[in-house]
Each structure stands twice: as C-alpha cells, then as structure tokens.
Design goal:
Elements: H1 2-40, H2 43-50, H3 54-60, H4 64-76, H5 93-103, H6 107-119, H7 128-150, H8 160-180, H9 187-198, H10 202-205
Helix pairs in contact: 1-2, 1-4, 1-6, 2-3, 5-9, 6-8, 7-8, 8-9
Amino acid sequence: MLYGTSMERATERGTRRGEERRAEIVRRALEVIAERGYRGATLGAVAERVGLTQQGLLHYFPTKDSLLIAVLEERDQWDTGSARRDGGHIWPLDLLASLVDYNAMRPGVVQTFSALLGESVTDDHPARGFFTQRYDKVRADMAAILRGEFGDRLPGGLTPEAAAPLLVAVMDGLQFQWLHDRDAVDMPALFRAFVSLLGQGDEAANG
C-alpha cells in the first residue's frame, strides 16, 4: 500500500514538473515569436531559450505548429476569446474595457498576437483555423455581452449579433493603430468612447 502511494506521488510530481516545463516553453516561445515573428522563430531557438535540446523540446511539442497553437491558446486564456468569468458568467462591458487597459500594459504580447493574426489570413498559415474558430466564438461572446447590457436591441436599433462584429473590429483595429503610434492612440480611452456610443440612441448619435 505504501509502495502504491509513493508511486502515485512520484507520478503526480512528474506530471506537475511536466506541466511546469510545458508552460515555460510556451512563455519562451512567445518571447521568440515576439522578437523574430513566427516565420523567423525556430524550434531550436525556443529550445535554447528554455535550456533544452531540440529533441527534448519535441517531447513536449512534436511540431512547430503545435507549439504555435499552444502559444495562442495561452495568450487567449484570459482574453476576449473566452469572454467569460468563472462559472460561465458573461463579462459586463466595463470589465471588457478593463481588459483593454490590461492589454495596454503588455505591448509585446499584443504585438505578437496581432502579427500572427495578420499572417494567418493566408490559406496555408497554421494559425488560420485557430483564428477562424476564435472569431466565431468571440462574436458569439460579444453578442452575449451586448445582450446582457442592452437586451435584444441596442439604443441605436442594432441587434447584439449585428453590433458584435463592430465591437470586435474596434478592439482589434485599435490594437493595430496603438502598436504603430502609442502616443497618438489612447487605446483604453478610445475603446471606452466607443462603448459610450453603443449606449446612445439614434438621436444622440446624430448629435
């Protein structure tokens, strides 16, 4: 019985170490991609950053594409791709604005994600499927957020489903503009201004 228990503990420790090493690889891969872009990032460069041989890295991620998807999923874990809190509750708009504030404090991560998003529009890019599925989910989540805030119709008359792509476009578009000129584009303030516009009726919107 004691032998079985010790074996179980050893297995748990091994699993925990494996998860920690996997998480470290993902973090370092994000750094390398931020520095070199996806095309220029090699498994060898990531392995060197982590202190592994390339063969050792392949034990955790058998291909460069699998590592890329893990990087994207890690970055997206607390972002609008899920747009949910613990227990499945939809985020309110003000918390979504806080997410924009948070992104403004991590330009390297935003830059990497935005660069990969731009590259992924090509048919053969390994992240194309990830971003296609992500946008499907993000639009649905944004529609749920807007429905929770305004009901079945926004003050301007749009349905949440019609307004959701606009909300996503503003978030992503502001990131690109902000990355080009952070002094000229106050991303958090501009996003809050757009959210304010969503809450205005036709008359207010028309001045």
